[in-house]
């Protein structure tokens, strides 16, 4: 992208803040249509030109859900993940799911970059905060999930898949959900291997592993285990569900909606939209349009079309 | 015919004769030197071989063989046979310099990845080696080793380790190889005080297996930054008037973890003392190469000081007394360079 356009973008953004109100439309039209690499350049140029951090200006000028979606979008993906993970460690319950989401749907290198961004911003490691803020079985699962640097190759060992499917089935049948081997398999094996193991599980034992993990719908640990499995094997289905629950919820869970849209817009939003349409008979655009309003809605809609030709 | 004395002083002249009337080229002193050259525990004395062995005529060699009962067996056959055990050891000793050179030239990531693999493939497994690798390297150095491991073996370090150990060992070792610690200097003083007390309470009151099962002890040691842990170490000393690592003496793995994270020179000097002790195992001997090669450019000066304190003699002196030949010279040169850093 020519430097000329970056300078133009900066100028336009600056103009959007100028005067009494804020030109939200202008902000959306620029930022929603730039990649994270381009936004990085814009931020650098903006700082050089005006001596201020674009994010701080956005924070000052915007508010509420719209601000959050714009600021999260303008963050570099690694910084965004670090920020969201840190936020999650400070809360409790549903935060487990966010931590599972971030640690299991990202590639090994994306998670690594997030951890480096976490060091830079918070002067601590992600692992220390996750460990400190969790306990018992949750700690036993979440800390390894946050620490692992999974092998990303495609090769799969079928003998291993068979033996580990057997182990999982055994432990689940004994209701030993927190057994160290369950944790070991889910938190150290590469995604290709886990997929092979769980396919074998289904073929050999009849059920999807998540079905067998649904024995107690109120058990929070089982919910986290199921989320782990889903994030590792079918992230687009996981995200579809998060979006569906966020939208259908009375009042809408903007936090979840914003999080999924900003973190997946550049990754797999197209597939998630297809999944959503398949599952809900309406498009995601339609659902968001119905459930949200104003600039927040406009930004979300622009972002979910981000990658589209 | 006048009987010549067997014992002669110099070789030059070559007019001496042994008991059998055969010409002798080498003196008893040289025989002894040659014997030493072949019998080292750390390397071989190439110089002796080049200078003395080449002068030996068949008569000298026969004498040498007969006079070296630890190297040649003179009983069963009608000739002095090489002791196969000694021959095997000699092969290893000849290779010691070669292996040092290869380790020295290898990319640190590849080297550490190979060592990780070795640590759990050896029988018995070398847990302290794994702890050493995970804890004495910086976060990014060990991350590099993890990437190299994946390139070399098509699996992650954590998968490899997790499947080979269980229980407490798995909890500790997998956490140590997985964690990506913050490497900065920022610490939370209040949190340190609290965590120091947590450790103190656990260590001073609980039994060994309770400490091993203590989630908080594990959390603190496997996730906190090195600077944080060094500060806890100081705090612990202040509060309890004893050293955290010494108080964990019962649980060797935790003790090694604390030393590797807080004071690597203490850990490394211990390894060096063992490597050059009277009867070291092959694992212990290999550690001599590893420590010198990997720490020359990191903290060799501190390790040498600690070694001197622990052993009572300078490190270089000890290496010169224990190792032979090129291997010895290689190590000494590296230590000298490390100490000048």
Secondary structure: elements and pairs:
The complex is a heterodimer of chains A (309) and B (341).
Chain A: H1 3-17, H2 24-31, H3 36-50, H4 54-61, H5 64-74, H6 77-90, H7 95-105, H8 108-122, H9 126-133, H10 136-147, H11 158-173, H12 180-188, H13 191-205, H14 209-212, H15 220-233, H16 235-248, H17 254-264, H18 269-280, H19 284-291, H20 294-304
Chain B: H1 28-38, H2 46-51, H3 58-66, E1 72-73, E2 81-82, H4 84-105, H5 108-121, H6 127-136, H7 139-153, H8 157-162, H9 167-178, H10 189-205, H11 208-212, H12 215-223, H13 226-240, H14 244-247, H15 252-262, H16 264-275, H17 282-295, H18 300-311, H19 315-322, H20 325-340
Antiparallel strand pairs in B: 1-2
Helix pairs in contact in B: 4-17, 4-20, 5-6, 5-7, 6-15, 10-13, 15-16, 16-17, 16-18, 17-20, 18-20, 19-20
Key descriptive features of the protein:
A: mainly alpha, 75% helix, B: 341 residues, mainly alpha, two-stranded antiparallel sheet, 2 strands
Biggest interface pair, residues each?
A-B, 30 and 32 residues
Largest sheet of chain B: 2 strands, antiparallel
- Give the N-to-C terminal Cα separation of chain B: 66 Å
The fraction of residues assigned to DSSP E strands of chain A is under 5%
Work out the number of β strands of chain B: 2
The secondary-structure element order of chain B is HHHEEHHHHHHHHHHHHHHHHH
Biggest sheet character of chain A: none
Q: How would the global form of chain B be characterised?
A: elongated
Helical percentage of chain B: 55-70%
Query: Structural class, from helix and strand content of chain B?
Result: mainly alpha
- Number of helical stretches of at least 4 residues of chain A: 20
Task: Please mark out the parts of chain A with pLDDT under 50 across 5 or more consecutive residues, or reply none.
Answer: none
Indicate the radius of gyration of chain B in whole angstroms. 26 Å
Distance N terminus to C terminus of chain A?
17 Å
């Amino acid at each position: 992208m020519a430097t000329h356009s970056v300078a133009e973008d900066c100028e336009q953004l600056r103009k959007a803040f100028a005067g009494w109100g804020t030109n939200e439309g202008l902000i959306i039209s620029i930022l929603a249509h730039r990649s994270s690499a381009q936004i990085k350049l814009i931020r650098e140029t903006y700082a050089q030109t005006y001596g201020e951090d674009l994010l701080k200006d956005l924070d000052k000028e915007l508010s509420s859900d719209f601000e959050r979606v714009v600021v999260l979008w303008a963050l570099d993906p690694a910084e965004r993940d670090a920020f969201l993970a840190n936020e999650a460690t400070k809360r409790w319950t549903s935060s487990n799911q966010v931590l599972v989401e971030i640690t299991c749907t990202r590639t090994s290198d994306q998670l690594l970059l997030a951890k480096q961004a976490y060091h830079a911003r918070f002067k601590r490691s992600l692992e220390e905060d996750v460990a400190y803020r969790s306990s018992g079985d949750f700690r036993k699962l979440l800390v390894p999930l946050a620490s692992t640097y999974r092998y990303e190759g495609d090769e799969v060992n079928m003998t291993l898949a068979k033996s580990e499917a057997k182990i999982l089935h055994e432990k689940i049948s004994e209701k030993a959900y927190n057994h160290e081997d369950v944790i070991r398999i889910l938190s150290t094996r590469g995604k290709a291997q886990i997929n092979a193991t769980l396919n074998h599980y289904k073929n050999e034992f009849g059920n999807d592993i998540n079905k067998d993990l649904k024995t107690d719908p109120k058990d929070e640990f089982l919910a986290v285990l199921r989320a782990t499995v889903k994030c590792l094997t079918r992230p687009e289905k996981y995200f579809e569900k998060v979006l569906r629950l966020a939208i259908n919820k009375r009042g809408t869970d903007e936090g979840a909606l914003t999080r999924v849209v900003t973190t997946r817009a550049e990754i797999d939003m197209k597939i998630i939209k297809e999944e959503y349409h398949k599952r809900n008979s309406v498009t995601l655009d339609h659902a968001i349009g119905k459930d949200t309003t104003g600039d927040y809605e406009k930004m979300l809609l622009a972002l979910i079309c981000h990658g589209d030709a | 015919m006048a009987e010549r004395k067997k014992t002669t002083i110099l070789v030059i002249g070559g007019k001496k004769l042994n008991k059998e009337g055969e010409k002798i080229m080498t003196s008893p002193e040289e025989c002894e030197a040659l014997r030493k050259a072949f019998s080292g525990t750390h390397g071989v004395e190439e110089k002796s071989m080049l200078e003395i062995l080449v002068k030996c005529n068949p008569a000298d060699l026969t004498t040498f063989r007969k006079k070296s009962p630890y190297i040649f067996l003179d009983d069963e056959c009608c000739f002095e046979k090489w002791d196969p055990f000694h021959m095997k050891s000699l092969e290893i000793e000849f290779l010691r310099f070669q292996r040092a050179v290869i380790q020295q030239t290898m990319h640190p990531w590849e080297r550490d990845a190979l060592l990780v693999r070795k640590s759990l493939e050896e029988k018995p497994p070398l847990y302290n080696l794994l702890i050493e690798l995970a804890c004495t390297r910086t976060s990014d150095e060990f991350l590099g080793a993890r990437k190299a491991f994946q390139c070399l073996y098509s699996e992650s370090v954590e998968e490899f380790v997790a499947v080979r150990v269980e229980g407490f060992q798995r909890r500790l070792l997998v956490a140590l190889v997985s964690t990506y610690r913050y490497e900065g200097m920022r610490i939370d003083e209040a949190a340190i005080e609290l965590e120091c007390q947590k450790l103190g309470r656990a260590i001073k009151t609980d039994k060994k297996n309770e400490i091993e099962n203590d989630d908080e002890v594990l959390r603190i040691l496997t996730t906190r930054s090195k600077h944080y842990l060094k500060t806890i170490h100081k705090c612990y000393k202040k509060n309890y008037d004893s050293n955290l690592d010494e108080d964990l003496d019962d649980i060797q793995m935790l003790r090694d973890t604390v030393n590797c994270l807080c004071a690597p020179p203490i850990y490394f000097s211990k390894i060096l003392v063992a490597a050059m002790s009277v009867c070291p195992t092959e694992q212990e001997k290999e550690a001599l190469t590893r420590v010198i090669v990997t720490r020359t450019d990191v903290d060799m000066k501190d390790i040498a000081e600690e070694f001197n304190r622990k052993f009572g003699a300078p490190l270089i002196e000890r290496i010169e007394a224990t190792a032979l030949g090129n291997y010895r010279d290689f190590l000494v040169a590296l230590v000298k360079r490390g100490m000048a850093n």
